[in-house]
Design brief:
nine-stranded mixed β-sheet, globular, Methylamine Dehydrogenase, Chain H, Immunoglobulin-like, Ig-like_fold, single chain, six-stranded antiparallel β-sheet, mainly beta, binds 2-acetamido-2-deoxy-beta-D-glucopyranose, 7% helix
Length: 596
């Protein structure tokens, strides 16, 4: 037994120099643990995991649409829950308004802000202009707070995206004024706004929404735009086949980027996965994005001519966001199988897991007046992409994708499914619900409402893990702190990685990020001195999980707050003007047009 382990270890050590030898991608030190992955199915989510966000070292918030979940709260059906990641059980949450296709981002003080939603109510309130606050707690007493008389969006948003900004506030971008299959000019909301409201781009916008031309130009398939905060304090935004660099401080489009190659559309209902590769001192924090999957189906095609059996795109497009990188344009690679509605998850070892989704069709389900050809039950997609793929951005082109040793799931995770990294380094897979209302799991419905959770463990989970103590509650920019560490023997390449696991919904992972910190191991290897991120644009003020990674094996990721933990700036004048110029739709009767 012991000998077998030793042999495995020496194989591992032999592989290390090989992996490092191919590290010419500039993404930093690399040593990946090879070997078997494992997949366990354990626990259920109580409500369908349309939205999934890790909120503490032990828990995640799950938000669904208002539908007939068996779980009840306060005498009515539930659509929110907090999952204990360790016990894999849920406690019910009680949002007031419909969270259906809302977005979410943390602000600088660690409060999660969920915005937008849907007006259709079985119970609860119209959520189109909702702002919901959830401040994580350790005693399981916290809940989602809403007060639309004081805190609301300026305009209705279903399928918006959001991003945490360098001042700890958030920007909320786009979406439609009402629900439907695909966006169009009459329901488009081609604007952005901030929470808390700001007055920075002209008096007429004081606290209100600001037009964004890009959201006109990208109709029809531009819901849930892909947004990444860049180290120079601008935003990368992609929608449909287009992309741009946007400066929110001056309300200017800095640059329109080359289109996604080969006619691939990347946002809903042609949902692709996307990721910003790790930002490291070695790569001079140079941003590079990758977008995988989507579809080449036309966005003006009538839904009843679209087929659930049309292959999705297998294309991954990556581009370095520097003048030189943009001039070189997108470089294109091909995934092992096509994928729509896939999730791209950053791992602490610098690689990207491509998981979930379908191989054919589009995002969506049957609603009155909208059907597609060959729909499966209510699902507009078919042929689930069961096998996860690992992508190594630093490997040579042609050898970056691999599914070796990764078990395939048997659970379809298509429309309204999610995935996220957990603090211990596993990947949690949840949701899938291509159904208008809760649909029981039985033999007659092929793709029912999916409550079962799965946890995927990369090979590093079964190795001796590094451990550390001494993480400060807050880590300010450029501040220096020392961690006490325990390293597995033979650990040579030790790095410290800050991660934002993001807020997952519809394949978009708002704020997902990995930033490697400058660190120095003591000669005794018992402590490591770490320097906080250099600037707020590199890692916006707010929650982060910190991993010590040794030879590709991450420690547990403990939670801290980057910055001071202060609340984002509040402009009372902007709030007053917003309240004066907008009304609270949650009090009005909601157009319950669907017979749910
Ligand atoms: C650690 O990684 C660096 C690249 O960042 C590499 O040059 C070095 O050889 C590695 N050291 C060991 C001991 O693996
Ligand atoms: C625009 O979208 C809405 C919501 O899906 C739909 O009711 C309306 O018919 C669409 N309009 C056009 C012109 O397609
Ligand atoms: C299967 O589920 C559907 C939808 O929930 C329900 O109408 C039907 O009665 C169920 N059938 C069986 C055999 O349980
Ligand atoms: C984290 O994973 C390790 C396996 O690598 C396991 O032994 C440990 O119990 C896990 N810790 C938590 C808090 O889940
Ligand atoms: C964070 O800031 C928001 C907005 O100002 C505020 O509503 C919330 O209570 C704050 N949370 C904490 C934990 O201070
Ligand atoms: C908005 O401000 C105007 C002018 O100050 C005032 O007359 C009006 O009553 C205010 N409306 C609301 C809804 O507060």
């Amino acid at each position: 037994m012991y000998q077998i382990r030793l042999r495995a270890l020496s194989t591992f050590l032999l592989l290390v120099p090989l992996a490092l030898a191919s590290d010419h991608g500039g993404v930093g030190s690399r040593a990946f643990v090879t070997g078997s992955w494992s997949l366990v199915q354990q626990g259920t989510t109580g409500v369908s995991a349309m939205q999934l966000v890790v909120v503490s070292e032990t828990s995640a918030v799950i938000l669904d649409k208002v539908e007939h979940n068996p779980l009840m709260v306060d005498g009515h059906i539930a659509w929110g829950a907090e999952l204990n990641i360790n016990t894999r059980t849920v406690r019910v949450l009680n949002p007031t308004s419909n969270t259906w296709c809302a977005t979410g981002s943390f602000i600088g003080n660690g409060t999660l802000v969920s915005t937008g939603g849907n007006p259709i109510v079985i119970t609860g309130a119209n959520g189109l202009q909702a702002v919901r606050l959830f401040t994580p707690c350790s005693d399981e007493t916290c809940d989602i707070l809403e007060d639309p008389t004081r805190i609301r969006l300026t305009s209705p948003r279903w399928y918006p995206s959001s991003a945490r900004l360098s001042d700890g506030s958030i920007i909320i971008i786009g979406g439609s004024m009402i629900g439907g299959f695909i966006n169009n000019a009459s329901v488009n909301n081609p604007t952005y706004e901030f929470f808390p409201p700001k007055n920075i781009n002209g008096r007429c916008f004081n606290g209100l929404q600001i037009p964004m031309q890009f959201l006109q130009d990208t109709l029809n398939a531009n819901q849930f735009p892909i947004v990444e905060q860049l180290p120079d304090d601008t935003l990368f935004i992609a929608a449909n086949q287009q992309a741009m660099i946007f400066d929110w401080k001056t309300n200017t489009e800095v640059l329109r980027l080359p289109n996604i190659p080969n006619g691939v559309r990347v946002t809903s209902p042609f949902s692709a996965g996307s990721v910003l590769f790790p930002l490291t001192p070695e790569n001079n924090y140079t941003p590079e994005v990758m977008i995988c999957g989507g579809s080449t189906i036309s966005d003006t095609q009538a839904s009843n001519t679209i087929s659930a059996e049309t292959p999705a795109s297998a294309q991954c497009s990556r581009m370095v966001l520097t003048a030189k990188g943009i001039a070189a344009g997108w470089s294109v690679e091909t995934m092992p199988v096509p994928r729509i509605m896939t999730d791209l998850i950053l791992l602490p070892d610098g690689r990207v897991l491509i998981v979930n989704g379908a191989q054919t069709g589009v995002a969506g389900f049957v609603i009155p007046g909208v059907e597609v050809l060959h729909e499966v039950g209510n699902s507009f997609a078919d042929n689930p992409a069961f096998t996860p793929v690992i992508y190594d951005p630093s490997a040579a082109a042609g050898s970056r994708f691999s599914s070796g040793g990764i078990p395939a799931s048997t659970i379809a995770r298509m429309y309204h499914s999610t995935a996220t990294l957990t603090p211990n380094g596993t990947i949690m897979l949840a949701g899938s619900n291509p159904n208008t209302d809760f649909t029981e799991m039985n033999s007659t419905i092929k793709y029912p409402t999916e409550y079962r959770l799965e946890f995927l463990s990369p090979p590093y989970m079964s190795q001796a893990r590094p451990a550390y103590t001494g993480l400060p509650v807050t880590v300010d920019y450029g501040s220096v702190f020392r961690l006490s560490i325990t390293l597995p023997s033979e650990a040579k390449n030790v790095s410290v990685v800050l991660m934002d696991f993001g807020f997952a919904t519809h394949g978009v992972h708002m704020d997902q990020r990995s930033v490697k910190l400058v660190s120095e191991l003591s000669p005794s290897k018992e402590t490591i001195t770490v320097t906080g991120p250099p600037t707020p644009a590199l890692y916006s003020p707010g929650p982060a999980f910190l991993f010590v990674v040794a030879n590709g094996i991450p420690s547990f990721g403990h939670r801290t707050i980057i910055g001071t933990g202060a609340s984002p700036p509040v402009d009372e004048g902007a709030i007053a003007n917003m309240l004066n110029k907008t009304s609270d739709p949650s009090a009005e009767a909601s157009p319950s047009t669907w017979s749910t």
